[in-house]
Write a structure and sequence with these properties.
Layout: E1 3-7, E2 10-12, E3 18-25, E4 33-39, E5 46-51, E6 58-60, E7 68-73, E8 78-83, E9 92-102, E10 105-110, E11 114-118
C-alpha cells in the first residue's frame, strides 16, 4: 500500500521557519522524483520545489528561491522542505508528490497535505 505522509505544518509568524517532512512507503522511493506543491484558498495548486532521485538536482518556483530548500534521505524514504523567512503569501496546504516508474508503469502519488499558516 502506497503512502505519503506529510508532517511539520503549523502556525508560524512572518519571518519564521518550518520544516516539512514527507515519509514514503509502498514503493521504491529512491527511484522516484519528489516534489512539493502548495494550494492556497481560492488558488490553483502550485509546484514549489522538485528534487531528483539522488538529490543532485533541485528546482524551485521563483517566489521561494533563496528561502526554501528541498532535500531527501533515501535511506529513510523521506523528503523534506525547509522553509525560512516565511511570508503570509506562503500560507497554503502543502502536498508531497512522487512520480516515477514501477516496472513499465508510470505512477503519481500524493500525500494528504499539511497546513502551513503564516500570520502574526
Amino acid at each position: 500500500q502506497v503512502q505519503l505522509v506529510e508532517s511539520g505544518g503549523g502556525l508560524v509568524q512572518p519571518g519564521g521557519s518550518l520544516r516539512l517532512s514527507c515519509a514514503a512507503s509502498g514503493f521504491t522511493f529512491s527511484t522516484y522524483t519528489m516534489r512539493w506543491y502548495r494550494q492556497a484558498p481560492g488558488k490553483e495548486r502550485e509546484l514549489v520545489a522538485t528534487i531528483s532521485t539522488a538529490g543532485g538536482t533541485t528546482n524551485y518556483v521563483d517566489s521561494v528561491k533563496g528561502r526554501f530548500t528541498i532535500s531527501r534521505d533515501n535511506a529513510k524514504n523521506t523528503v523534506y522542505l525547509q522553509m525560512n523567512s516565511l511570508k503570509p503569501d506562503d500560507t497554503a496546504v502543502y502536498y508531497c508528490n512522487a512520480m516515477g516508474y514501477s516496472g513499465a508503469r508510470y505512477n503519481t502519488y500524493w500525500g494528504q497535505g499539511t497546513q502551513v499558516t503564516v500570520s502574526s
